[in-house]
């Protein structure tokens, strides 16, 4: 991946043309090689960029404009179709480069397994890393039908790497009984069903710490985000998710990177999901990149 010139395709609205001058880097991880239900999230990053043209550049929530933040849209990482391990290796190498140059990485998926190599890279730079995870699903399986590289495993992998007591999951409403039991036994924090109120309780405990935030779009109820691979009824509203992003922005934690994953545009002809994701990305840029 070259950074000496701007990405030549569609870019997220108001992205800065120069990598060197930018504080943050927006990038796509177009992979859905391990999904167990509906593929299509590899097309998420491109569509999120395309619909961003319809966004206002100003956030009424944060009283800030995109031109106030220098962020570079690096485009999508070119990942080898059908090769999960090589794809994960390439993502980790990409993030290693960004962190070595003190950039804030903001990723777009792609299936949720793509977050795993990013969190690995973040932990190498920030050994006291904590993770905030918003999702419908626990993602705590060791494998899916014998395959350890699965979109149902990234949070388990991260918890085993950085310590389960440093992982905080919110909005969870689906998972195997064994996953919930494991989390309880090892001291991992799981908030079922809700995000905002339990998040408010946790954030003061993480004050001053480097935190990576990973958001699966299916934390939203399917009424708000039908365009995803594994829809699950009973989720939160887009209003609550926006409020949660703003709560993090107002907190004393040090957000060092983030991602938004599992947008699968093909399942939402209305483009509601992609448009919502685009707005969430805008608020993450304006709220978390200081």
Automatic annotation (TrEMBL):
Lipid metabolism is among the record's keywords: no
Reactions that this protein is recorded to catalyse = agmatine + H2O = urea + putrescine
Specify the pathway: Amine and polyamine biosynthesis; putrescine biosynthesis via agmatine pathway; putrescine from agmatine: step 1/1
Q: Which cofactor does it need?
A: Mn(2+)
Spell out the family assignment given in the record's similarity comment. Belongs to the arginase family. Agmatinase subfamily.
Relate the protein's function as given in its record: Catalyzes the formation of putrescine from agmatine.
* Name of protein: Agmatinase
| Biological source species | Cytobacillus praedii
């Amino acid at each position: 991946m070259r950074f000496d010139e701007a990405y030549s395709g569609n870019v997220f609205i108001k992205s800065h043309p120069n990598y060197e001058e930018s504080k943050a880097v927006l990038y796509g991880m177009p992979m859905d090689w391990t999904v167990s239900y509906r593929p299509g999230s590899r097309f998420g990053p491109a569509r999120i960029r395309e619909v961003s043209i319809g966004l206002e550049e100003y956030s009424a929530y944060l009283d800030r404009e995109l031109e106030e933040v220098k962020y570079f849209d690096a485009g999508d990482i070119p990942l080898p179709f059908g090769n999960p391990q090589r794809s994960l290796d390439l993502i980790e190498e990409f993030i290693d480069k960004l962190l070595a140059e003190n950039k804030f990485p903001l990723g777009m998926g792609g299936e949720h397994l793509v977050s795993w190599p990013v969190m690995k890279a973040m932990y190498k730079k920030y050994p006291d890393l904590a993770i905030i995870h918003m999702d419908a699903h626990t993602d705590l399986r060791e494998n899916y039908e014998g395959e350890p590289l699965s979109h149902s495993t990234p949070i388990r992998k991260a918890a085993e790497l950085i310590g389960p007591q440093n992982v905080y999951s919110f909005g969870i409403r689906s998972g195997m009984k064994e996953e919930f039991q494991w989390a309880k036994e090892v001291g991992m924090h799981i908030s079922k069903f809700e995000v905002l109120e339990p998040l408010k309780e946790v954030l003061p405990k993480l004050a001053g710490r480097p935190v990576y935030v990973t958001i699966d779009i299916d934390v939203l109820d399917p009424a708000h985000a039908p365009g995803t691979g594994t829809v699950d009824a009973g989720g939160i509203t887009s209003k609550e998710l926006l409020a949660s992003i703003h709560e993090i922005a107002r907190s004393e934690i040090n957000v060092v990177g983030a991602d938004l994953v599992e947008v699968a545009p093909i399942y939402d002809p209305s483009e509601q999901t992609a448009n919502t994701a685009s707005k969430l990305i805008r608020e993450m840029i304006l709220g978390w990149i200081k």
